[in-house]
Design goal:
This protein is α/β, with parallel strands linked by helices. The protein folds into 3 domains: 5-141 and 267-329, FAD/NAD(P)-binding domain; 150-264, FAD/NAD(P)-binding domain, CATH 3.50.50.60; 344-457, Enolase-like, domain 1. Helices cover 30% and strands 24% of the residues. Strand 17 and strand 18 form a beta hairpin. The model has no long low-confidence stretch (mean pLDDT 97).
Amino acid sequence: MDFDYDLFVIGAGSGGVRASRISAAYGARVAVAESMFLGGTCVNVGCVPKKLFVYGSHFSEEFEDASAYGWQVDQESFDWATLRDNKTKEIERLNGIYRNLLEGAGVTLFEAHATLIDAHTLQVGEQTITSKYILIATGGWPVVPEFPGSEHAITSNEAFYLPKFPTSVVIVGGGYIAVEFAGIFAGLGARTTLVYRGDLFLRGFDDSVREFVKGEVQKKHINLMFNSNVTQIQKQTAANGQNSFELTMADGTQLSSDLVLYATGRKPKTAGLGLEQVGVALGDNGEVLVNDDYQTSVDNIYAIGDVTDRIQLTPVAIEEGMCIANNLFTDNPKKHLDYQNIATAVFCQPNIGTVGLTEAEAVTQYAGDLDIFESDFKPMKHTLSGRDERTYLKMIVRRSDDVVLGIHMVGPDAGEITQGLAVALVAGATKAQFDATVGIHPTAAEEFVTMRSISRTA
């Protein structure tokens, strides 16, 4: 059968764009459909604007600390519209870059919604298009649970475009998005409360890191409410037209806030694609189920990235896109992403950087064969500023062969530091090799090559 394209990609996020570009470079005829924005979640309503906001929120502390270094800041004020609109300009610039990347690679871009008609046919806007292979890369979308007044809550999507900065905000959720936005709003001057239904936020991260971050977040004047849940939100409008919200908690107590942000989870964007009609199997959360080759239950249809609801990280989707292009359009050996030792960062304040096993995971696999190294200290910067902020480092080592299984850090630039250490873990580095590495002084990173005392065994 003669198809219009060799590969049709639904979704022009980071993974879909990479798969498209590389496939086209291998000689495939490629098209992409995107009905929202080029660059996907990360570029538009995710990691890029979020980190710009994190940068902006740091300045309040920088101004406070400046006097210890001889600087006098005469006037301190914050204009939300400037940050918001400068962020938007940068996002628009990146949208243009993604467009140029696709067009420069010879990929046909359809700015329209695509729906599957059968395994090889799609309805794209007003056109019917056929393709040998189809790739689903539509990502995920934040969800708010339904309860009385839930329609008054916003998600992280809307937080990037608020018409007015709130005086107070309640953030509901315990994942990294909730914790990051708590730091952003507090740093920019809002009275901030973080509500989480569990005992401690950041489930899935190392427990030592979670406890340490809890203490540091509280120092940022963020009110933490654990084992709490919102049962109702009521909107109230003052005589001047200003809206506020009254939150009723499960224990009957109430909170008032100018803004309620829900960061309680994301769901794969699979609705309205026609997947079920053509036989593509979905999981309980609506995720596209794939095998090790990213292949769905329909042989010629593949899926990568957040829509598969596995590891929801932009670099993971990009690497999966590289694998798809290689596997479908070259004679090279098949490529598969190794999901072990994938480093990640949380841009809370201070930052988290982590790679490898948590202590709990390591104990499950290697109980009785572990040495745990830890370091906790005041960053050099704050020896003059006097700010009560600390840095925490942790290394998990398998005693029998000295291999480093996990590295975790909380502190300034933790993500930058952990990225380099991830190379060592992927290479199978041992504690002895870390010890033999000469540190860069004075840095926080050097602590990872100077830790000699075992904190405990496990």
